[in-house]
Amino acid sequence: MASTDFIRQLDGYGLTTATILYGIPDHPAVLQSFVWQQYDLAPKFPVLRKFLHFWHRELDGPLHSVRVAHSRLIKPAEFRAVDGIMTLH
Predict the structure, then answer these.
(1) CA 15 → CA 36, 40, 69, distances in Å?
(2) Is residue 1 pLDDT above 90, yes or no?
(3) Most buried of the four, 35, 50, 55, 68, by CB within 10 Å?
(4) Cα–Cα distance between 67 and 19 in angstroms, integer?
């Protein structure tokens, strides 16, 4: 049985990494970073948007900036049809 992460990759999901800079509530002039990583769909990033909405709604640290990197780990060119099998002695 295939893992759910592998099935997601076949459905077009890729590994998304977001570096989030946010202000510390007690010291607004100080920024801290948080790295978030999850499988998501580019270019709309619904999983990341859901997480950022949660952050804005539930956490006190105001968001300063978000830098996103995305890579599809399984690409269509990596799969090739095999027409036959050759046996060498």
Answers:
(1) 11, 6, 8
(2) no
(3) 55
(4) 5
Please report, for the chain, the start and end positions of each structural domain, with discontinuous segments joined by +: 4-78
Per-residue model confidence as pLDDT tens digits over 56-78:
999 999 999 999 999 887 766 55
Q: What is the pLDDT of residues 20-34, one digit of tens each?
A: 999 998 997 899 999
Which is nearest to 14 in space by CA: 74, 76, 77, 78? 74
Please give the Cα distance from 15 to 39 (Å, whole number).
5
pLDDT of residue 75: 64
CB 10 within 8 A of CB 76: no
* DSSP string computed for 9-71: HHTT-EEEEEEEEEEETTEEEEEEEEEEEEEE-TTT-HHHHHHHHHHHHH-SS-EEEEEEEEE
